[in-house]
Each structure stands twice: as C-alpha cells, then as structure tokens.
Write a structure and sequence with these properties.
It is found in: Endomembrane system; Membrane. The chain is of the alpha/beta class. It has 15 helices and 21 strands. Strands 8-7-6-9-10-12-11 form a seven-stranded mixed β-sheet, sandwiched between helices. It has a seven-stranded mixed β-sheet with strand order 17-16-15-18-19-21-20.
C-alpha cells in the first residue's frame, strides 16, 4: 500500500505486531480475573468474620470496622469524710496560696494534674434522697446540707430555720423582711416588663439561699443565682438542694463565665459587692453581661440611705457620697434611672448608640473597650476597666426587640448568623431532632418528665435543643458550652434559656450532689484528645446526686470504655439504641447508687 509520500508499507510486519499484542491482552485479562477472584473471596471471608461487629458500630457496610476503645477495669477508693463537700477549683484548703486583694482567693484555682483526686466523694452521714419539687423550694433535709452556722448567723433575717430534721425556707432576706413575695411584687410594680414575658433571664449576684430566684420561677423568669464559696457556708448548695438554678462564682478579677448582652435583668440585694470601688470595674462586668434594654436592680446600701443609714454603721454623709458616686458611674456607662421606690432602685442599660459613641472621645472614663477585646471571651479572661459596647448591627438583640416569652424560644436569634453553619433552618432542624430524641429518652428513662428529676445539666449543648424539648417538664437545665467549641451560648440566652461556659478538663463550679440528671451528646468524641475520660467521669460522679442519672449519648467507639469506668464508679448502666437505631452511636443510661462512707453510722 502506497502512502501519500510515495513509500510502501511492508505487509509481513503487520501480522507480526498485532498477534503478540492480542495474546498479551488476553493473558493479562485472564490473570486480572484470577487475582480479582482471589481478592473477592478473601474479602467475603473477612467480612463474614467482622459482620457482627460492623452491625454494632457502623451505619454502612462500606465504612471500615474500627475496634471499640478498650480499657482495663478500675475501682475507685472513697475519699475521706472531710471531702464530703469538696469543690476542687474553689477549695478552702488552697485559699492561702492566693492573694486576698479583691478576693482573688475565691475565684477558680484548679489543682494541678498531680494533685487531682481519684476518689469518690462520700455523702454526709445521714444523707437522704432530696425532697422533690415543688416542696423542695420550702424545705430540705438538714443532714444533706449540715451547716448550722448560716442558720445561726441569718436566723434574724429569716433566710432559713432549722426545725427537727429539716431546714425550712420562709422566704425572708436582709432587704425583704416581709418575705420575698412582697419584695418581688413591688419590683414588678416598678418593672412591668417582668409581668408580660419581656424579662425572662436574670442573674442574682450574692444570692444568699436563692429565695429571689426561687420566687421568680413561678413568674416565668429563670434566674442564675451566683455566690462564692465563702464564710456564708454553702449558699449555692442550699439553692440547688431546693431545686433552684445556681452556680459558684464571684466578681473579682476575671469575667463571669457568661457571654455579653445575655441577661435581661441583674439583681443585687445587699450583696456586699463594692460597686463604686476600683473604678467601678464590677459594674462594668454587670454592664457587659446585661443585654441592651436590660435592668439592673439594687436594694440595700446606698439606696434609700436617707432612712437606712443608721443601721449600716456609717454616716448619712458617707452614704450620700456613695450614692452620688454610684449614679455618676452608672450614667458614664450608659445606664439610666428607670424607677425607684423605698429600698429598690432600678437602672436600665441604654440601647441608644449615641451614648456609646461618646465613649470614644478622648479623656473619657470609662472608655470604650478596644475592638481587639472579644466581648464574649469569658473563660479566665481578666476584667478590664472599659465598656463593652453593644454592636450596632445587632439591633434585634436588645430586650425591647426580642419576642416575649415563650415565643422567644422558637424564634431564631439574630446572633445565630455569627455561628458557622447557623441559620433559622438549622435551628428548626435542631429543635425537631431534639423533640424526637427527648421522646425516646423518656421511654428509656421514665423518671424524665416527672418531679423525680429537677436539676438537669446538658454538658455540651449547641443551641439548647435538649432544654427546649423538655421545657414543659418540672425541671430546669444548665446548658454548658465548651470554652473550646463554637460560641453558641449567646443563642441559648437569646432563646430565654440559661447556661455557662466551661472546660471539662476541669471541675465544674458547683458543690457535690447537686444534679439529678447529666446529659451529654458526643462529649468524649469532641474532647477526649484534651481531657482524660477518667477525670471527666469522676467529676460527673461528684456533682451527680445519689440515685441520679447520667444519659450518655456517644460514639460506639467510646461506649465500652465509658461503661467500664462507670462500673468502677459504682454506677449501674445499660446500653440502648438511639431513636433511629444508628449503629455508630449508642446510648448509655446510668444511675448512681446511694452509698455511705465506711466510717458512716448510716451504713
């Protein structure tokens, strides 16, 4: 055959090249088929061996099988009896190591790793399961909180009264001798927004035995009662024993563990916080956590100093000076006097940007905080003598712009746009998911939804979905957002729920035996690279009441290990499927046993 260039092909070369190529292809195909057959048969054999495991741990047979985490069984010794009210990060045994300036020794100071306890905190001698809500608001067992000192010191103020085997809570207080009900009635007359669902969340600084927060529960207002572990023994423990939300804390040198612009109301009833000292830095922290349009309520010195100064071991001139200094500081922070009557004064945080714009002017005190200072940074973050100015673009986060409770719970907060992946549809999906989960939980744990479970903690919430799903049950939920996770706590507060920042590598700011139910969803999956699982579970045991429950939703990889440690904690646990029977995720439903120390007479 002649080509265009006039050259000829050599015909004998064509069959010589084609035949070997064809044979080569046939041989290779056959060899590949043979290898494939061997591979497939081996794969089938291996899958046959692992099919039982895959069905437990993977949602799809295509996912590779991963052996569950296995750990050696362990048993924990009992702590000595003097650790019955052990609070690791606010331990009076360690106070002397820290300074007394601005009461810094009362702040969180967690023990170093080598000093962490690996023992089980015993209950007091004679401990009984707590009285159930709502009766618990008015009385508790004396042996559960055996502190007669506070009873003797505050008996004249009607805080509490010991009667037989119980403490009774008459509802008195330093500034409400006629009872907390009458005190709050007057407050509602001054702040009508407390009646119509506008005010939903509050914080009570220096809460005593939390009678103010307890009264507000019936009025649809959810209060975080805050007090340090100080000479007023066990204020927070009394509050939680009564079934009222509370947390250990003090305004000292660090920010409180709450986001900015969150609480609708803040309250101080002779809480002994020196508001006008140190340049008003404590007032600046109240300003930070109070949302625009929110109320700050003060009763006690120096309010009504004209009639009260004789009982305050001071002079009328000193009290007048303190009051004028307080008014000046509040005005400089963009607070306005809202109402005042008798012993109660109410200021409102401004929503008007024109006031905050003036803080940028030179030589103004307190000045506007620098933009580099994150408003919501609140985990071991030092207090700064400056005003955290509300962001002008967040116009719907002011109190007057929020929907009233309970509609507020269902509306996507404006600040959800600050969360990666956050949107109205994401919130709606999350709420729907948790309604299904809560319904399933109640089948597995019938006590949930009854007055057997009152104090609940969601240990690693996102939007507060679990708390929202059980909002109509006779309980309250402390929503915890990890200090290392996405900052979703502002959304929790915008929805009308309460919570706190926390790092589960450390102990929580509460007393032992203060929660009926601890719920977690993938906490170990998220934090096991930082936090030792053993210490997290020991902390859960410390804060869980005897006969209380832990509802652990976790990857199948961790479930066996958790169950092994829980056995060492003397918990009884059973494994359950999730609501959709997903194999890669399981539920562990545990109950803490009531046991007594070997030296206890209650054994």
């Amino acid at each position: 055959m002649k080509h265009k260039d006039g050259k000829y092909n050599s015909q004998p070369e064509k069959p010589f090249k084609i035949v070997p190529a064809t044979l080569l292809v046939i041989v290779l195909c056959g060899f590949s088929f043979y290898l494939g057959g061997i591979f497939c048969s081996e794969k089938s054999r291996l899958e046959g061996k692992s099919v039982q495991y895959v069905s437990k741990t993977a949602s799809s047979p295509k996912e590779p099988a991963v052996d569950p985490l296995q750990i050696k069984s362990m048993a924990f010794q009992e702590c000595s009896a003097d650790f019955q009210d052990y609070t690791p990060c606010t331990d009076p045994r360690r106070w002397r190591k820290y300074g007394s300036h601005r009461l810094t020794f009362l702040e969180r100071h967690c023990p170093p790793m080598l000093e962490r306890k690996q023992c089980l905190v015993p209950p007091p001698d004679g401990y009984k399961p707590p009285i159930r809500w709502p009766k618990s608001r008015d009385e508790c067992w004396y042996r559960n909180v055996p502190y007669n000192w506070i009873n003797k010191q505050k008996s004249n103020q009607n805080w509490l009264r010991k009667q037989g085997e119980k403490f009774l809570f008459p509802g008195g207080g330093t500034m409400f001798p006629r009872g907390v009900g009458a005190y709050v009635d007057l407050m509602q007359d001054l702040i009508p927004e407390m009646r119509d669902g506008t005010v939903r969340t509050a914080i009570d600084t220096g809460c005593g035995v939390a009678s103010w927060g307890g009264d507000l529960l019936d009025r649809g207002i959810l209060t975080v009662s805050l007090a340090p572990r100080d000479n007023h023994e066990a204020q927070v423990q009394f509050a939680l024993e009564r079934g009222i939300p509370a947390i250990l804390g003090v305004i000292s040198t660090q920010r409180l563990p709450f986001p900015s612009n969150s609480f609708d109301m803040a309250h101080c009833s002779r809480c002994l916080i020196p508001w006008t000292e140190f340049g008003g830095i404590y007032l600046l922290e109240v300003h930070r956590i109070l949302r625009p349009g929110g109320f700050w309520v003060l009763s006690g010195p120096p309010v009504n100093y004209e009639n009260r100064w004789r009982g305050w071991n001071t002079t009328v001139e000193e009290q007048k000076s303190d009051y004028e200094k307080l008014e000046g500081l509040l005005t400089s922070m963009c607070f306005k006097m809202y109402a005042k009557k008798d012993d109660i004064a109410v200021w409102q945080k401004s929503s008007d940007s024109s006031c905050y714009n003036k803080l940028a002017e030179p030589d103004v005190y307190p000045a506007k905080c620098d933009d580099s200072l994150e408003p919501d940074s609140a985990w071991y973050t030092p207090l700064r003598p400056c005003v955290v100015v509300p962001k002008p673009e967040l116009k719907k986060s002011a109190l007057e712009s929020l929907p009233k409770w309970p509609e507020r719970l269902q509306v996507a907060p404006e600040r959800i746009s600050n969360v990666p992946g956050g949107s109205s549809s994401a919130l709606k999906h999350d709420d729907s998911k948790w309604k299904v989960r809560a319904k399933h939980y109640k089948k597995l744990l019938p006590a949930l939804g009854t007055n057997e479970i009152r104090n609940v903690m969601d240990m690693n919430t996102v939007y507060g979905g679990f708390a929202a799903a059980v909002i109509d049950d006779p309980l309250w939920t402390m929503n915890v957002v990890s200090s290392y996770a996405a900052n979703t706590l502002p959304l929790v507060y915008d929805r009308g729920l309460i919570g706190t920042y926390h790092d589960w590598c450390e102990a929580f700011s509460t007393y032992p035996r203060t929660y009926d139910l601890l719920h977690l969803d993938g906490l170990f999956t998220a934090e096991s690279h930082r936090c030792d699982m053993k210490y997290v579970l020991l902390e859960m045991d410390r804060i869980l009441r005897p006969k209380g429950y832990a509802l652990i939703r976790e990857s199948s990889y961790f479930i066996d290990a958790i169950a092994s440690i829980a056995k060492g904690l003397r918990w009884s646990c059973h494994r359950e499927d999730t609501e959709y029977g997903v194999a890669k995720e399981k539920l562990l439903v545990c109950q803490k046993k009531l046991w007594y120390s070997a030296s206890s007479s209650s054994r």
